Every structure is written in structure tokens, then in C-alpha cells.
Automatic annotation (TrEMBL):
PROSITE patterns referenced in this protein's UniProt entry, alphabetically: PROKAR_LIPOPROTEIN
Source species: Alteromonas profundi
Domain of life of the native organism: Bacteria
Protein name according to UniProt: Uncharacterized protein
Length: 453
């Protein structure tokens, strides 16, 4: 792929070259150590929260994060920097293009993360809190194992599938065919409190579970088994899924996630080879009451092609998703994006610098790029979000010569050793407005394709 599309980050990389280390020779930024304090009151309306999330659940502010507001000519007309609490206040109400800069970590190594949003309002920036993971030293985590007796939960007989999370996690773990006991690892950092444990239980003998029980376990010890006696049967609502009558080569996957903020409490994953085999109803996770239930159904397709003797692996996802409040009672209707239409639109990206996803009614498109060097070190992540029709020409206009970002980088735009690109198109069913669609929890059909090189 010896064309500019492979290096879609180059324009921003060059324009932001002046950001690197203007006041320092240091190229490595250490994670912050202070836990921060509650956000200060601000005369500005829009506050973006920038935080690090460690492997053992500790949250610390990103004091090096910043947001650039670009003028109509692409120049940097304002720079908003994070304070000691990781809060970035934006004092602008009109439509503008914004670039978010922060330091990410992979395997303890820092790298620049660049996110550009074209022609949006500041409230949509505030919806996109900056969260980076994996800065925690595993040795800094104190971990222990809790043994739980689940035999009193009705679906535990003869055996249960259990989804496990903790209230300091951003993911879930699944154990299948458990009899009476489940062991859960919990971790904390320093003198933090031990997190609560969230359990989702269903019958292991059922391919599509009939009943879901959930439980939150907070008062536990490590030297004795705790009986789970507070599991609650989840209320269910009907669901219908449509996929444009298209046949797929691989399974259809249904993902359920109960969340409070960005923390996953409950969930399940169901895979079938046809949407007709998916469940006709799904659980609404309700405790705590501020919880939302996220539903995501999608196809996965795999492929590859050759471009200038390079082997390019392709993975595509087309589906639909929604996030609902805990008190929802309405039927959930999820119209999946057409794989055929999305794939046709995505592949034209490699023959032109412009793109048009109107055939799939896309409100927004995000183009992303991640690059690694010969040592498999992640050296850059970049994404560009625009309306459903756009052009890479925007990258030629963005400038930030006088912005003093915390991290230097040395990135060879001609020969990255490896990496991937992705294209994501999203259609929020209830609107045709690009700005209104951003960050929406409403029913959304989507397509994502990853190109690994």
C-alpha cells in the first residue's frame, strides 16, 4: 500500500511536529502519581476529563493532555491544557475542528495519541473523555482471590456460566460449566478499598440462556468462602434483529453489557450462525439504578488482498448497537448495517482521497491509524472523525507549530514496520445530523473494517 492512504496520519504528524518537547529534551513522560482532587468550578461550560486507568484499577489524572481548537484555515487558534485534576475546560460555543493530544501507554512505554474531530461543537468533545490504559506496574497491584459459593442461585444447577467483573475493571471474564464455586481475583493499588465483585449467572446447559441472575458482592474476606445469596433475576424485554437479508460466512455475535459510567458490571456473549437462532428477549441490568444496558449485535467477515506485494489482512464488523437505561420496557429493534454496501464503500478508499458512505446512511466516519516500529513499539495512534462524506485533504491544512506537547516522537512515515488502519461508519437511526449523532446512545447501525499490514 505505497500510497498516502496508508499514511493518513502523516499530515497531522507533520503539522504537529512542533508540538514535541518544545521546552524539554525528555522524550519519556512518567505517569502522574497524585490522585487529584474533585474538579474545580469553572466559568467554562465544557469540561473534558483526561485520566489514566491502571491495570489494577487506579485512576489518576492526565496532566499532559491538551486540546487544540483549529481555525477555519487549520491553524491553532486556542490550546486548552489539562489542570492538576486532568480537567480540560473549553470556552468556545461555535462549530470548530478540535485535536485532542494525550500520552498513551503500551507495555509501560509512552506514545502519542492524536484524535481530530472536524466541525463539531465543544459539548461533543466533552462527551469523549480521554482514558488511557496500562500505565500501572503490575508489581504495584495487591491482588488476592475470593471464593464464592453460587449453589443457591437457581441457574447454578447442574452447572452455570458466570461472567465476572469488578467495579475497578473495564472488562469482563467468563467461566463456564461451574458447579458450586467460582474463584475471583480482585486487585487494588496502595491502600485503596477492595472493589466490589459483579456476577452474571446463567445455565450452562442452555445455548441461549432463558434466565439471567446478577449479584453484587462487596463484603468478602479472603480466608473463607462467601455464599452468594443476593442474586436477582433480571427483567427481560423483546428484541428483533435484521441484517438486510444478507448471508454471512461467519457467526453472528450478541454482546450484552451492563455499565455504570465506563465500568462493566454484568454481561454475556452469545454466538450463533444465523440471526434466527438469537434470543427473542434480552435482560435489562438494573442494579445499581444508574446502570445502562448495552446491546451490540454484529457479523464478522475475514479476508485479505495484496497491494504492491504487501499482504493485507482484513477484518470487518457490521452490526447495530444501543445503550438503554435500566428502566427500559420497550422492544429493542436493531437493524444491522449492510455488509455488502459497507464493504463496497470502504474499498473505494484505496482508489481516491475522498470517501462517501451515504449509501449506508452514515452520519459520521472515523479513519484511524496505528503504527509500530521494528521492536513492536507502538509509536503513534491517530484518528480523524468527519461527517459521512469527506476527504483526506483536511490533513494538509491542520497546523500546531507553537503548541508545546509533552512528548517527543520520531516516526518514519515512509516505512512503519507494522500496524493497522481502520474505517468506521456510523448511522444513528433517529437522526441525519452529523453533530447530533456523535456520542449518541440511541440505536446505531455501524460498519468497521481493519486493515493489518
Amino acid at each position: 500500500m505505497k500510497n498516502r492512504n496508508r499514511f493518513l496520519a502523516a499530515g497531522v504528524l507533520v503539522s504537529l511536529a512542533g508540538c514535541g518537547g518544545g521546552g524539554s529534551d525528555d522524550s519519556v513522560v512518567s505517569p502522574p502519581t497524585n490522585p487529584g482532587t474533585p474538579p474545580p468550578s469553572s466559568s467554562y461550560e465544557h469540561i473534558v476529563s483526561a485520566t489514566y486507568f491502571s491495570s489494577c484499577g487506579a485512576i489518576t489524572p492526565q496532566t499532559d493532555a491538551m486540546i487544540i481548537r483549529h481555525g477555519s484555515d487549520g491553524s491553532a487558534v486556542a490550546v486548552y491544557e489539562a489542570d492538576a485534576n486532568g480537567d480540560i475546560a473549553i470556552d468556545y460555543e461555535d462549530i470548530a475542528t478540535y485535536t485532542m493530544l494525550n500520552v498513551g501507554y503500551r507495555n509501560g512505554e509512552p506514545y502519542p495519541r492524536v484524535h481530530t474531530y472536524v466541525n463539531i461543537t465543544a459539548d461533543k468533545i466533552a462527551d469523549r473523555s480521554i482514558i488511557s490504559k496500562d500505565i500501572g506496574d503490575a508489581d504495584a497491584c495487591e491482588c488476592n482471590t475470593v471464593t464464592l459459593d453460587i449453589s443457591n442461585v437457581p441457574v447454578a444447577s447442574p452447572s452455570a456460566n458466570v461472567i465476572v467483573s469488578t467495579t475497578t475493571a473495564r472488562t469482563v471474564y467468563e467461566d463456564g460449566d461451574l458447579d458450586d464455586f467460582v474463584e475471583v481475583e480482585v486487585c487494588r493499588q496502595g491502600s485503596d478499598e477492595w472493589p466490589a465483585i459483579a456476577l452474571t449467572l446463567s445455565n450452562a446447559d442452555e445455548d441461549v440462556p432463558e434466565d439471567y441472575y446478577t449479584a453484587l458482592v462487596a463484603n468478602y474476606t479472603f480466608d473463607e468462602t462467601l455464599v452468594v445469596d443476593n442474586a436477582v433475576l433480571s427483567r427481560k424485554v423483546p428484541i428483533t434483529v435484521s441484517n438486510n437479508y444478507e448471508e454471512t460466512n461467519y457467526s453472528v455475535r450478541l454482546s450484552l453489557r451492563g455499565r455504570v459510567d465506563n465500568v462493566i458490571y454484568f454481561g454475556d456473549n452469545i454466538s450463533e450462525y444465523d440471526i434466527s437462532a438469537l434470543p427473542s428477549s434480552i435482560p435489562m441490568f438494573e442494579n445499581p439504578t444508574e446502570m445502562t444496558t448495552g446491546i451490540d449485535v454484529y457479523n464478522t467477515e475475514y479476508g485479505d488482498f495484496y497491494d504492491f506485494d504487501d499482504s493485507i489482512s482484513i477484518v470487518s464488523y457490521t452490526g447495530a448497537e444501543v445503550r438503554l437505561p435500566s428502566d427500559n420496557t420497550a422492544t429493542v429493534d436493531l437493524p444491522m448495517m449492510s455488509y455488502n454496501l459497507f464493504a463496497e464503500q470502504a474499498m473505494t478508499f484505496f482508489t481516491t482521497e475522498s470517501y462517501d458512505f451515504s449509501a449506508v446512511n452514515a452520519d459520521s466516519v472515523t479513519l484511524g491509524y496505528s503504527a509500530r516500529d521494528a521492536d513492536d513499539k507502538l509509536v503513534l495512534f491517530f484518528s480523524l472523525t468527519t461527517s459521512g462524506q469527506g476527504s483526506l485533504d483536511i490533513l494538509d491544512t491542520l497546523e500546531a507549530d507553537d503548541v508545546d506537547f509533552a512528548l517527543d516522537w520520531d516516526f518514519d512515515t515512509e516505512e512503519p514496520e507494522s500496524g493497522y488502519m481502520f474505517i468506521e461508519a456510523r448511522d444513528v437511526i433517529g437522526t441525519d445530523n452529523y453533530i447530533e449523532s456523535l456520542g449518541s446512545d440511541d440505536v446505531t447501525s455501524y460498519g468497521i473494517v481493519y486493515f493489518d499490514f
